[in-house]
Design goal:
The complex is a heterodimer of chains A (274) and B (298).
Chain A: H1 2-14, H2 18-50, H3 63-68, H4 70-73, H5 77-92, H6 96-102, H7 106-142, H8 152-178, H9 182-204, H10 208-214, H11 218-226, H12 230-238, H13 246-266
Helix pairs in contact in A: 1-7, 2-7, 5-7, 5-8, 5-9, 7-8, 8-13, 9-10, 11-13
Chain B: E1 7-16, E2 19-29, E3 34-38, H1 45-52, E4 60-65, H2 76-79, E5 80-83, H3 95-106, H4 111-119, H5 135-147, E6 153-157, H6 165-180, E7 184-189, H7 192-195, E8 201-206, E9 209-215, E10 223-228, H8 232-241, E11 245-249, E12 252-256, H9 260-270, E13 276-281, H10 283-292
Parallel strand pairs in B: 3-7, 3-8, 5-6, 6-7
Antiparallel strand pairs in B: 1-2, 1-4, 8-9, 10-12, 10-13, 11-12
The chains are: A mainly alpha (274), B alpha/beta (298).
The structure holds adenosine-5'-triphosphate and magnesium ion.
Chain lengths: 274, 298
């Protein structure tokens, strides 16, 4: 029963265009950003450092993880949107009717959706890594820097990027169930991830007492899980941002996903379908 | 085909906040016949059908298929097939994919998808995105979804909506055929005339309450006599005391169960002059409108 529900959810995603449209934008965006970063710090970084300017102080060893983790530190909004759209489109197109007719146990449907989107989130993570590592490592080695690809720590980081992307997709599903209006959900996701959270993270990093709170913001928890992020490196250099251990970050992020999905189930998912 | 079961509705009620959509509704739908589920717009038909299928939670009462609620059925889509009014499709998905998504979830054999698409006449359009479908094509796809599991019970909400005359003819004979195969068929409509050629039994509701449950033939009001007099009040009491079944209308009186000659004789006996004496065949549609009140509510 559950397996059938999961297969149905996979089919739902693969039979409309959204998954690859989002994927192309994600890969393009991550490739552009990581290429730019590798170019700037790999190519010009030496000159900036020797000129003694106040460029962010990023050591050679820290550079590869920062560039590779662009896949999640910048790209995480895509699995969130993906999960949100997958859920809200069911409300928007009233496809919850045939869905619940084919599988009247609504919890099973939501569970199948969470599993399915987690898999797609992980696949998005892998695709984004192909972009960030592929382009980033090429530029790093071309400019005479270490790519750190022989280092097992690097591969552990890549695996954590995939995990983070999977959890973000689950968060998206939960948000979609919490906010069934598609437009409202997209606006909230974009406003929070692109605008509100970066500001909050910057502000909380300015005071010690706030930094302890700031590390629990979802983006901060995700960066902690991955273990590296352009955002953390930039702010940590300038201020006192704190970061959780990687496993703590993972648990915080996963906890948020479960809470969002649980609240979504208790609110809109169990409602009358009219 | 799976075994056909009865649909048993017992004391079903639903309120949406202040709106009492369905009130204490009870009726039984039997296999082997087409049952019409009729009522004016807003009478509560869709709400009732959605409660049958577990999509809307009743405020009271129950609806079961052979004793089991929809969510308790072992193979729901293969037991009960339904086409609901709202067009519940993702516009970017093709008809074939639409059916296979839900067929997969319900564990229905893959070859059924092409079978039902052919059955409803959509075989040539199976790979087109549903967003480009006409209303009639969507209705047909809805019907294909209902047939997907080859169910013994079919629940159809306004399936005639949007179909062209040929489509209407086709669905009428199709419904008969399905019932002839021994299936339980419940089909809703807000127009009696739309389904009267294909239904045997009717359940009529108005403002959420049951007003008629029985055979179509018995619904026909037969002939009534319209009668009037300058002394209408006097005529009415005279007819009543003579034992006639009199209904006061805006523009006269209507007598049922008596012939025009009888009514004329009653008036003569009482010495009341008549200004009108006309037999009128009421017909099904009139009987329906009388039952649901003046058009029900909007
Ligand atoms: N989700 C809802 N929230 C509030 N009121 C509702 C809801 N769904 C239906 N109603 C109300 O319940 C009543 C019955 O509606 P329903 O859709 O069941 O009627 P219907 O018989 O199917 O009408 P139609 O012939 O127009 O399809 C109406 O008054 C309607 O406004
Ligand atoms: Mg309706």
């Amino acid at each position: 029963m559950f397996l059938r529900a999961v297969r149905s959810e996979f089919q739902k995603i693969l039979t409309v265009r959204m998954w690859w449209v989002l994927l192309i934008v994600l890969v393009g965006y991550v490739a552009f950003t990581s290429g730019l970063l590798a170019g700037v710090f790999g190519g010009l970084g030496d000159q900036l450092a020797s000129s003694g300017g106040n460029a962010p102080d990023i050591t050679d060893a820290a550079l590869p993880p920062i560039i590779y983790s662009i896949a999640s530190s910048i790209g995480y909004v895509f699995p969130v949107l993906f999960g949100t759209l997958a859920t809200t489109s069911e409300f928007r197109h009233q496809t919850l009717t045939p869905t619940f007719l084919a599988q009247p146990h609504r919890g099973t449907v939501l569970g199948a959706k969470l599993v399915t989107l987690a898999v797609f989130g992980a696949l998005y993570g892998i695709a984004a890594l192909v972009a960030s590592v592929g382009l980033g490592a090429s530029i790093l080695s071309a400019t005479g820097h270490s790519t750190a690809l022989g280092d097992s720590d690097t591969w552990a980081l890549l695996a954590r990027v995939v995990l983070a992307m999977a959890i973000w997709a689950i968060i998206g599903v939960g948000l979609g169930a919490l906010i069934p209006s598609q437009v409202a959900a997209i606006v909230i996701v974009l406003a929070f991830t692109q605008f509100l959270e970066p500001i909050l993270r910057l502000m909380t990093s300015l005071a010690d007492w706030a930094a302890g709170i700031g590390q629990y913001l979802p983006g901060a928890a995700s960066d902690a899980l991955v273990g590296s992020s352009i955002f953390t490196s930039m702010t940590a250099a300038a201020s006192g941002a704190q970061s959780l251990e990687w496993w703590q970050g993972g648990l915080v992020l996963f906890g948020m996903a479960i809470v969002a999905a649980g609240l979504g189930y208790l609110t809109s998912w169990r409602k009358d379908v009219t | 085909m799976s075994t056909s079961t009865t649909i048993d509705v017992r004391g079903l009620s639903k309120s949406f906040g202040q709106v009492q959509a369905v009130t204490d509704l009870s009726f039984t739908v039997r296999p082997g016949v087409v049952t019409g589920f009729l009522g004016p717009n807003g009478a509560g038909k869709t709400t009732t059908l959605r409660m049958l299928l577990g999509l809307v939670r009743p405020s009271g009462g129950s609806a079961t298929f052979g004793g089991r609620a929809y969510r308790e059925l072992a193979r729901p889509l293969a037991t009960v097939g339904m086409a609901l009014e709202a067009s519940s499709f993702h516009p970017g998905r093709s008809a074939r994919h639409h059916l296979s998504v839900y067929g997969t979830a319900a564990g229905i054999a893959k070859n059924r998808v092409d079978e039902v698409l052919g059955q409803v006449g959509l075989g040539d359009f199976a790979d087109r995105r549903v967003g480009g479908y006409s209303l009639g094509m969507r209705q047909r796809l809805g019907l294909a979804f209902a047939l997907l599991g080859d169910p013994g019970v079919l629940v159809l909400d306004e399936p005639v909506n949007g179909l062209d005359p040929e489509g209407i003819k086709w669905i009428r004979s199709f419904l008969r055929q399905l019932a002839g195969e021994g299936r339980t068929v419940l089909v809703s409509s807000h127009l009696l005339s739309e389904v009267q050629q294909s239904v045997d039994q009717v359940v009529i509701i108005s403002r959420g309450e049951l007003v008629y449950d029985g055979g179509l033939a018995a619904l026909d009001g037969g002939t009534r006599i319209l009668v009037d007099s300058p002394d209408r009040a006097g005529l009415e009491s005279a007819l009543r005391s003579a034992g006639a079944d009199v209904l006061a209308l805006e523009d006269g009186l209507a007598v049922t169960g008596s012939s025009a000659a009888d009514v004329g004789a009653m008036a003569l006996t009482a010495g009341i002059p008549l200004s009108r004496l006309t037999p009128e065949h009421t017909g099904l549609e009139k009987a329906f409108l009388d039952l649901v009140g003046e058009g029900g509510r909007p």
